[in-house]
Amino acid sequence: MQEKAGQPEEFYIGIDLDDDWTQISYFWPGMKEPETVSMIAGGEQYRIPTALYRPGGYGSWHLKGSSQSQKEPGGRYIERLWGKSLRQEVIEVPQECEAQELFVVFLRKLIRLVPGLMDVDQVQAVTFHLREMSREAVQLLKNAAWRIGIEKNRVFIQDDAESFCHFAMNQGTELMQHDVALFVCEDQELSCYYLTKERKKIPARVDIALYGLGTLPEDEMERDAVFAHKVQEVFHGKIISSVYLMGNGLEGGWMKESVQILCRGRRAFQGKNLYTKGACYGSMMQRSKQRAQYVYFSDHKLASNIFIQVHNGEREFFYDLAEAGSSCYEMEKSCQVLLDGDENVDIWLQAADSGKARIESLVLTGLPKRPAKATRLLIELLASERREIRIRITDVGFGPWYPSSGKVWEYCIDE
């Protein structure tokens, strides 16, 4: 790849992906903080419809469509591409086309919006923020990124809490000296992510609690009073450095009483692009993982290192199957070993925060009797849900002398 003089060589990208709209932020070494792409130069129009538009119904697809585009004679507007892709819908445009194919087109055009990005090889990491995580969603995004030239091992996925964590922990010292809160209200449903961190260790462990706070009234005066009361309940007995507000339910000029409580001894901000910047910080964390000042283990990330003890000749060592902090949705690793006389496989789990390890001994019931080192096993670590470790072990035999028995053992281990 040929770099132009003055062009950045490394890009870190964060994408807040929703069915209605998408936001994209970027960072390269030398910038003070991530920037979010605006569809209006110098403005704050960060929301890009998750859609494609084709004028006249033929030719190239374009971004920046809106519902108004549907009224243009002959134009074709395909909206909600993310949901259609997850459901594996087929769209007529005018020929039949899989929604996932159009999503790849959307993603390619979205990445091209990043200023200074000349080639996807410059992308060191891209992190997607999703409101709902699933194995299907993770696989779809990794495949789509690979289709546009970004290797799957450079693609990461995170949820609301993790994006909030990365954003909050990368703000100024005065904004994260104590606890940090994020209030989110979409369609009147109010919730709060409450961030606390250790201060004695480096990396500091970060924990985030989620509070469901019910609904806010439609009447603005009543809404202000109810929101103020809920803020007081969350903040009671706590020291908070900063507060962020997100969602259509917390927009407008109706906050009077509540804003006084929010800003009492702390800073408060509207977080219009908090998730996409948090995703971008998540990409940057991949570069400095070994030097990270904090660590956060979400519900879908491993809190333990997973490995097996093996030996090669007289040399004994541990072989890593998964690293603490890895997403359960993305765990896919395999290796082959020769069984040394035992009828079980020991899996070691080492807690990242304490260093303590425990052994889970997986018994291979019904394994054919063979001499030591005459049984070859395929050990696979499989994607799972919420810190559940799935392991599949297959007897693949040992050449023509000891053919495979066809036996497969599957285990689930809780962290």
Structural summary, described in words:
- By secondary structure, the chain is of the alpha+beta class.
- It is globular, with a radius of gyration of 25 Å.
- The strands form six sheets. Strands 1, 2, 3, 4, 9 and 10 form a six-stranded mixed sheet that branches.
- The model has no long low-confidence stretch (mean pLDDT 89).
- It has helices at 81-86, 99-111, 135-147, 160-168, 220-235, 257-262, 274-287; strands spanning 11-17, 21-27, 35-36, 48-49, 52-54, 76-78, 90-92, 96-98, 123-129, 155-158, 179-186, 189-197, 204-215, 240-246, 267-270, 294-296, 304-312, 315-322, 333-338, 344-351, 357-363, 376-382, 388-397, 408-414.
- Helix 2 (99-111) packs across helix 3 (135-147) and helix 4 crosses helix 7 (274-287).
- The two termini are 43 Å apart.
- Strand 11 and strand 12 form a beta hairpin.
- The protein is built from seven helices and 24 strands.
